[in-house]
Structures are given as structure tokens and as C-alpha cells.
Amino acid sequence: MPEPLSPTDTRPTIVVDTQVVLDWLVFNDARVQSLAAALKSGGLRWLVAPAMRDEIRHVLGRGVAASYAPDLALIEASFDAHSEATAAAEPSPRLVCRDPDDQKFIDLALACGARWLVSRDKALLALARRARLRGLLIVKPELWTPD
């Protein structure tokens, strides 16, 4: 179970899925630049469970982005500098993602009281209306705003 959020850390909490992280750190996608700037500024509390970081390593290890020649050391350094490692969350019995590989993102976001889960994944976006009832906004990166 994730550690309780520090009452002295007032930064809004965010969970970012693998594709959005790749869009930022590998593909330099313009649609994620606003989010990337906020993450780099330290104004957001970006939470990452071990399985999320492992998924990035796995995807890159499969050569998915090989033509972009990703700088693995830079990606690891960015995680270290801009994210906060936390334990995996227990599965949410109420919000179940139709893609089991993406369940970890919704579980962590709900367990930690994140304000946003940023994703382009259709299975996660399909949960947006129900997640909003629990105080979680699931948004595409190009629609994310800090407000």
C-alpha cells in the first residue's frame, strides 16, 4: 500500500501512464510539453510505483522506440529527479480497467488521492466519468491543465 501523503507537501498529485512518459522523455511530443514543464518544475507530485517504472524499462527493452535512440540514462535520471517512488496500491474493486496492464495506474491514482491520471489509453479514458465522482480527473496530456 502506498505511504500516506505528507500533510506538509501541498503539491497536487499526479499519475502519468507509460505512453505519456515515453511521449515526453523519448518522442519529445509537443502535446505533452505543458505537462512536462510542470513535472520538471517540481510543482506536481508525480507518483510512480515500481511496476510503472518496470513497464517503461520493458517497453524500451523491446526496442519499441529504437529508431529514436532513447537515452536510457537520461530517462532513469528524469524519473529520479522528477518523480516520487511509492509502493503499489491495492486493486480498486470499484474501478476496474478493461486492460489489466493499466489497472496499476488507476489503483495508484485512487489510493493516493491524485488529482489527475494523465493517459491516452482508451481503457483508462473510459473510466473518466466514474473516476471524476471519486475526485480523480483522467485526461489526455494535451487537455491537462494545472487548474
From TrEMBL:
Source organism (scientific name): Pelomonas aquatica
Name of the protein described by the UniProt record: PIN family toxin of toxin-antitoxin system
Pfam families hit by this protein: PIN_3
Domain PIN, chain residue ranges per copy: 14-123
NCBIfam families assigned to the protein according to its UniProt record, in alphabetical order: putative toxin-antitoxin system toxin component, PIN family (TIGR00305)
Coiled-coil regions listed in the entry: none
